[in-house]
Design brief:
Blueprint: E1 7-13, E2 16-20, H1 23-27, E3 46-57, E4 65-77, E5 81-93, H2 117-126, H3 143-171, H4 173-241, H5 248-336, H6 340-385, E6 401-403, E7 409-411, H7 421-438
Parallel strand pairs: 3-5
Antiparallel strand pairs: 1-2, 4-5, 6-7
Length: 439
C-alpha cells in the first residue's frame, strides 16, 4: 500500500514549505479554507446570511395568532470555512379589531344577548372594541376600567328599571282610558237619571195642578148653581106671597137670575181655562228644557270620550317614541358613562304620567260641574212644575124683590161674577116695571 505524499501546508520557513500534518486545522477549525488550509488572518472567509421575513395579517371574526419562526442554520465545515445562515420567519397574526376593519355583529357576543343592536354596538365601542369571544389582548382590566365597568353596570340597571316603568305605564294606558270613560259615563248616566226623575216628578205635579183646577171648576160651578137656585126660590116665594107667583113677573124674575148665573159660570170657566193653559205651557217649557239639557250633556259626554281617545293615542305614540329613543340613549349613556340622558328620559316619562293625571282630574272636575249643573236644572224644573192653583173667584148673588109704599117692586142683586152695575139696574128696572104692570 503506497503512502500518499504529505499535503503542502501553509506554513514555511525561509520560503521552504513545510508538510501539512493537520496541526493548523486543530488550531483554527473555525477558519478553514475551502482548500483545507488554515487562514489564521481571516483573509478568505465567505459568510452568507439570508433572512426572509413574511408578515401576513388576516382579520376575521375569530382571533388566531400564529407565530411560526423557522430558523435554519446550515454549517459546512471543511478545510475552508463556509457558513450559511438562512432564517425564515412567518408571523401570521389574526386580531379581531386592530385597525377598525371588523364590523360589529351582535351575534358574535353572547354577553349582548337580548340587547338592542345599536345600544350593544355603542357599549362595545365604549369597552374598547374587544375581540369576539376573547380578550382585547390585555393581561387584565385596570382599576380605571373596573370602575368604569361598575358605573356602566349601574347605568345599565337604571336604564332597565326605566324601561320597566315605561312598559308598565304603557300597558296601563288602556286601563286609564277606561277609567276616564267610566267617569264620563257615570256622570252622564247619573245626570240623565236625575233629569228624567225630575221631569217625571214635575210633570206629575203639573198633572196634579190640572186635576185640582178641574176639581175647583166643578165645585165653583156647583156653588153657582146652588146660589142661583136659592135665589130663584126666595124670589118666587116672595112673589107668591104677593099673589104674583104664577104671573109673568115670576118668569121674568127667573130669567133674570138665570142670566146672572150664566155670567158667573162663564167667569169660572174662563178662569179655569186660563189656569189649564198655564199648566200646558209649563209642561211644554219643562219638556223643552229637559230635551235641551239632555242634548247638551250628551254632547259633552261624546266630546269627553273623543278627547280621551285622542289622549290615549297620543300617549301610546309618545311612549313608543320614548322607548325607541331610550334604546339609543342607553347606548350613548353607557358609552359616555353619563346619567344625563337617563335623567332627561325619566323627566319625560314623569311628564307623560302627569299629563294622564291632569286629564283624569279634568274629567273629575267636569263631573262635579256637571252634577252642579244637573242640580241647578232640577231646581229650575221644580220651579216650573210647582204651581199654586187657586179657586176661581166669584161672588154669590143675593137679594130679593121688594115693594115700596107706593106699590113699586124693586130688586137689588148683590155679587155675581161677570155682572155689571148697569146689568143689575136694567134688570131691576125691568122687574119693577113688570110688577107695576101686574098691579
Amino acid at each position: 500500500m503506497a503512502l500518499n505524499a504529505p499535503h503542502a501546508g501553509s506554513w514555511n520557513i525561509f520560503g521552504i514549505p513545510l508538510p501539512d500534518l493537520g496541526i493548523t486545522e486543530v488550531f483554527a477549525q473555525d477558519n478553514l479554507t475551502d482548500q483545507g488550509g488554515s487562514n489564521l488572518l481571516n483573509t478568505n472567509t465567505n459568510t452568507n446570511n439570508n433572512t426572509n421575513t413574511n408578515n401576513n395579517t388576516n382579520t376575521n371574526k375569530n382571533t388566531n395568532t400564529n407565530n411560526n419562526t423557522n430558523t435554519n442554520k446550515n454549517t459546512n465545515t471543511n478545510n475552508n470555512t463556509n457558513t450559511n445562515k438562512n432564517t425564515n420567519t412567518n408571523n401570521n397574526t389574526n386580531t379581531g379589531t386592530p385597525s377598525g376593519t371588523y364590523n360589529f355583529n351582535i351575534a358574535d357576543f353572547p354577553n349582548y344577548t337580548g340587547w338592542d343592536p345599536t345600544a350593544a354596538q355603542q357599549d362595545w365601542i365604549a369597552k374598547g372594541r374587544p375581540a369576539p369571544g376573547g380578550s382585547s389582548g390585555s393581561s387584565g382590566p385596570t382599576p380605571e376600567q373596573i370602575e368604569q365597568e361598575r358605573i356602566r353596570n349601574q347605568l345599565s340597571s337604571a336604564w332597565d328599571s326605566y324601561f320597566s316603568n315605561l312598559d308598565q305605564q304603557f300597558n296601563g294606558l288602556d286601563t286609564q282610558a277606561g277609567n276616564m270613560n267610566q267617569i264620563v259615563e257615570n256622570s252622564y248616566n247619573q245626570g240623565i237619571s236625575d233629569i228624567n226623575a225630575e221631569q217625571a216628578n214635575n210633570l206629575g205635579d203639573l198633572a196634579t195642578s190640572s186635576r185640582k183646577n178641574e176639581e175647583n171648576q166643578v165645585k165653583s160651578l156647583a156653588d153657582i148653581a146652588d146660589n142661583i137656585r136659592n135665589l130663584f126660590r126666595s124670589g118666587n116665594i116672595y112673589l107668591g106671597a104677593r099673589g104674583a107667583g104664577d104671573s109673568s113677573a115670576a118668569n121674568q124674575y127667573s130669567y133674570a137670575t138665570a142670566k146672572l148665573g150664566s155670567k158667573q159660570r162663564g167667569s169660572v170657566l174662563e178662569q179655569t181655562r186660563s189656569i189649564e193653559n198655564d199648566i200646558e205651557d209649563r209642561k211644554a217649557k219643562l219638556n223643552n228644557l229637559v230635551t235641551q239639557e239632555m242634548s247638551k250633556i250628551k254632547t259633552e259626554r261624546d266630546n269627553n270620550v273623543l278627547q280621551t281617545a285622542q289622549w290615549l293615542a297620543s300617549a301610546q305614540n309618545e311612549l313608543r317614541q320614548m322607548r325607541a329613543n331610550g334604546e339609543l340613549q342607553k347606548g350613548q349613556s353607557l358609552a359616555q358613562l353619563s346619567q344625563n340622558l337617563l335623567d332627561q328620559a325619566r323627566e319625560r316619562l314623569i311628564a307623560e304620567d302627569t299629563r294622564a293625571k291632569n286629564r283624569q282630574d279634568a274629567l273629575l272636575t267636569w263631573a262635579m260641574n256637571n252634577a252642579t249643573t244637573i242640580n241647578q236644572l232640577k231646581s229650575n224644573l221644580s220651579q216650573i212644575g210647582q204651581m199654586n192653583v187657586t179657586n176661581p173667584t166669584y161672588e154669590k148673588l143675593s137679594g130679593s124683590p121688594t115693594i115700596d109704599a107706593q106699590g113699586n117692586m124693586t130688586t137689588n142683586f148683590y155679587g155675581g161674577a161677570g155682572s155689571t152695575k148697569e146689568d143689575k139696574n136694567a134688570l131691576q128696572t125691568y122687574l119693577g116695571n113688570l110688577w107695576i104692570n101686574q098691579k
